[in-house]
Amino acid sequence: EAGVVQSPRYKIIEKKQPVAFWCNPISGHNTLYWYRQNLGQGPELLIRYENEEAVDDSQLPKDRFSAERLKGVDSTLKIQPAELGDSAVYLCASSLGAGRGSVYGYTFGSGTRLTVV
Amino acid sequence: KQEVTQIPAALSVPEGENLVLNCSFTDSAIYNLQWFRQDPGKGLTSLLLIQSSQREQTSGRLNASLDKSSGRSTLYIAASQPGDSATYLCAPDNTDKLIFGTGTRLQVFP
């Protein structure tokens, strides 16, 4: 099993430029999450998908962030335009069915480290 | 709103010691709680998952306990090794999403 795959691993961009991150979850995992982790902090949820539907995007800064999960498999997170404060690690996670007493838990990818200069 | 606190924030110990990492959370109505390890510049590796109906889980030298009613979980690491050096994060799940603390940064020196 390949695990949760994210790309790119690192990205350096100038402020006001667009950037996109890609995530391929574990095969068969219908729940997908995007988290953001600032330096020295724990990850914070940005958006949660159940299949192709975004069921929790309350923490997503919608003025500049967007996400999609076409066909309920791969997902892309986009920032346009990027700001200096967006520098962080962006983590993708997937689960067979998290919450509600699920025995499965979450599996995280290696993350994308974004630096905005 | 769920809030998670981890104590201590950092820990530096000689190899061989038995360790206790503490996690407290404010909303006890959780489905489960997961402990993760994070190496510098890496993603999160799941260590243990405890269901709300369970009291503890064990994997090798790791043991995690859960007292849901008091909002506490503890991760025990037996006979620590330099390879255990990492940041340890706990994350309860009570709204179909994990809420993380800031973690305990552990350094085990030879």
Textual characterization of the structure:
- The complex is a heterodimer of chains A (117) and B (110).
- With 117 residues, chain A is mainly β.
- Chain A is built from no helices and eleven strands.
- In chain A, a hairpin with a 6-residue loop joins β4 and β5.
- Chain B is mainly β and 110 residues long.
- Chain B is built from no helices and ten strands.
- In chain B, strands 1-3-8-7-6 form a five-stranded antiparallel β-sheet, with no helix packed on it. A five-stranded mixed β-sheet of chain B has the order 2-10-9-4-5, with no helix packed on it.
- Chains A and B meet through β5 and β10 of A and β4, β5 and β9 of B.
Q: Can you give the mean pLDDT of chain B?
A: 94
Most extensive contact: A-B, 30 and 28 residues
Tally of DSSP helical segments of chain B: 0
**Total count of strands of chain A:** 11
Beta-strand proportion of chain A: over 45%
Widest β-sheet, arrangement of strands of chain B: 1-3-8-7-6
- Helical content of chain B stands at under 10%
Written as H for each helix and E for each strand, in order along the chain, the element string of chain A is: EEEEEEEEEEE
Annotation, overall tally of beta strands of chain B: 10
Structural class of chain B: mainly beta
Chain oligomer state: heterodimer
Question: Quick one: overall form of chain A?
Answer: globular
Major sheet size, sense and barrel closure of chain B: 5 strands, antiparallel
Query: How many whole angstroms does the radius of gyration of chain B measure?
Result: 13 Å
